[in-house]
TrEMBL record, chains A, B:
Pfam families xref list: GntR, UTRA
Organism, as annotated: Devosia ginsengisoli
Protein name, as recorded: Phosphonate metabolism transcriptional regulator PhnF
Single GO MF annotation: DNA binding
Top-level taxon of origin: Bacteria
Positions of the HTH gntR-type domain: 11-79
UniProt-listed GO biological process terms: negative regulation of DNA-templated transcription
InterPro entries reported for this sequence: Bact_HTH_transcr_reg, Chorismate_lyase_/UTRA_dom_sf, CP_lyase_PhnF, Tscrpt_reg_HTH_GntR, UTRA, WH-like_DNA-bd_sf, WH_DNA-bd_sf
CDD domains: WHTH_GntR (cd07377)
Keywords carried by this UniProt record: DNA-binding, Transcription, Transcription regulation
Amino acid sequence: MTVSKDVSGGVALWRRIADAIRLDIVGGKLASGDRLPTEALLAERFSANRHTVRRALAVLAEEGVVGAEQGRGTFVRSARRLSYPIGRRTRFREGLRGQAASLVSQSLSHRIENATAAVAAALGLKPGAKVVRTEGLSIADGRPISRSTTWLPYRLFPDFAERIAQLQSTTAVFASYGIDDYARASTRISARHADVEETKLLGLAPGAILLVSEAVDVDSAAIPISYALSRFPAERMELVV
Amino acid sequence: MTVSKDVSGGVALWRRIADAIRLDIVGGKLASGDRLPTEALLAERFSANRHTVRRALAVLAEEGVVGAEQGRGTFVRSARRLSYPIGRRTRFREGLRGQAASLVSQSLSHRIENATAAVAAALGLKPGAKVVRTEGLSIADGRPISRSTTWLPYRLFPDFAERIAQLQSTTAVFASYGIDDYARASTRISARHADVEETKLLGLAPGAILLVSEAVDVDSAAIPISYALSRFPAERMELVV
């Protein structure tokens, strides 16, 4: 717990300043390589003191969005958000191809559990049916871009967790089970603040926003094969339909 | 500006408590009619004092998400989020049909302006081309659910603004120009905090999250006819693909 004076309705002024600058960059008002207005001008624009502006710039610098250059000022870096295409044929790795030099998927943990009502409904199972639950983290060029929890019918994929840890790709694991094609049945998109665990795992500043997608994939016979709850840092990812 | 002691990383504890409870409701851990844990239990769960928990509950009560009942405790109300379907054929009013008893679209203002680079690119125009810009607000059952800014080629729709004020429906205005069918070419979805104006117009608590969609619609000859930037309060709306 720290004490802050610049709080209005639960979001500190430094965070709102950082958001506004990020928005200027995403919206094209500021392009990569542009010099940011001086601290004095930013302080005036946001009715803030320079200490507050400096804190906002420090957070943006930490995220790689801006960089200070000795004696020259603060410049916009090319930290563009990645675009993840959502459609009938949604593939995470394919969708991000060409947008990142490296894309690593980590399998954090897995367990067998009984489906809650929500998971059972999504997968067309009876509540309490056995499901495999895997926890994963995806990292693009060193920046975590997705934290996902996936449930699958245990009956169809008893050792899904072991295979995903080895193959790193959901598509590859499905193929190993003889499923050569699968399709996105539905995607529900919402947004919320990251919780403490997500903030830590995704390397975010506390209070960062997540885009949340709840997706059901089905096989060629329209049988649900996975239900995934994915959290994407809004400052790093956008979804394109 | 107020002073808050419960700030961690720019988001006050009361706001994070409210987010967590909202998440429990959306995620199905708490259903409509369920009694919330007592203030003492919530205070323990979030390592907060009871004053902070009370503030979180007051905000949720104001939003209609929970309600306190004299001598009985605090209960979950059925303030479910509306689902807005996004697809090839995306229609705002049609998509929300059955989810709200009343849906009012207000035309706030309009003007003719020269397209910025981003607007021109979205509409396939030359930068600086004349565009109609309209500002709108949509309200479902008394709750604002969308604040949108729409740009259209002036050449095609010189008096779009006047017609939308009268007809209230984009589909109806397009029909009045002889466009009987149109389709969604692309939708880009991101999320950020609401700014001061959006907070006020949408009737949100400061620091609320918006889902932002940038959408281009095209006519049957694939000519771009509108570019809309819509902001939906994440606590009231979700997008379904």
